[in-house]
Amino acid sequence: MQCVDCVNEGARTVRHARTSAGAVVSNGRPIITQVMIALNVLAYVVTVFQSGSPMNNQRAGLFTATSMIPELTANGEWWRILTSGFMHFGLIHLALNMAALFVVGPVVEQELGKLRYSAVYFLSLLGGSAAAFYFGTVCQQLAGASGAVFGLMGALLIVFKRQKRDISTIVVIVGINLVSNLFTNASLLGHLGGFVIGGLLTLAMVKAPQKNRNLYQIGAVAVALLLLGGMFALRAAELDTAAELVLEYARTCR
């Protein structure tokens, strides 16, 4: 028999096993993944309610105000680079992304821990937006959690490689999805941007030396933020320089 205080005191002195990224090994619930799924589903339900259609919900006021439209984003509506990651074009788009997030998310969250996982998720989302915004045309309207989901696939690839596990299935799935983008309206740039940022950021996290690990990982996050911020700023300046041409081109897109 041991008193509660004795057990708690002993637990504080025990060194917990940690993952390659420095997270405490745990079998807890993937809270962040569940929250992200809930937020995406909630946003979809609101757009369906506003539009009156589960498949044409892009007509909803919330969707119009939060999806990423390059000309409006460059004109100061910067929230769109983040909020667009919670909008989806219809039920199938939502279901595919949430299914992938449900499968991949918990594995990556367990390896990275909640804080690092959140950083990878949101920076992958921004990476997808940045790639589509910087390299894409002003005609493209971007929405969906695909950038974040592909970022997590990139993260899972790094985690499995680090653990010396078979990565062939992940490579095939990512390859099929990227190739399919060539025959659909999906944003290839958005998917690639998320995949690259998620993979590189996770690589930096698992490769960080144990000594000052947190400092190295914070530095990696800061570098990613600066890179993505620079891409948004440069593209916005470019569009502002050719504002009249861009607006005319945007009108022809419609």
Offer a quick outline of the entry:
This protein is mostly helical and 254 residues long. Helices cover 71% and strands 0% of the residues. It is globular.
Q: Any overview of this molecule?
A:
With 254 residues, this protein is an all-alpha fold. The protein has a single domain (26-244), classed as Rhomboid-like fold (Up-down Bundle), CATH 1.20.1540.10. The longest helix is centred in the C-terminal third of the chain and has 29 residues, at 213-241. The N and C termini lie far apart (74 Å). It has twelve helices and no strands. The model has no long low-confidence stretch (mean pLDDT 87). The radius of gyration is 20 Å and the shape is globular. It is a multi-pass membrane protein. This is Membrane associated serine protease, rhomboid family. It holds the Pfam family Rhomboid.
CATH superfamily: Rhomboid-like
What radius of gyration results from the CA coordinates? 20 Å
Q: Could you give the count of β-strands?
A: 0
Nearest-integer average pLDDT: 87
Low-confidence stretches: none
Sequence of secondary-structure elements: HHHHHHHHHHHH
* Silhouette: globular
Relative strand content: under 5%
Per CATH, what is the topology? Rhomboid-like fold
For the record, the CATH class is Mainly Alpha
Termini separation comes to: 74 Å
Q: How would a crystallographer describe the biggest sheet?
A: none
Reported CATH architecture: Up-down Bundle
Label the structural class. Answer: mainly alpha
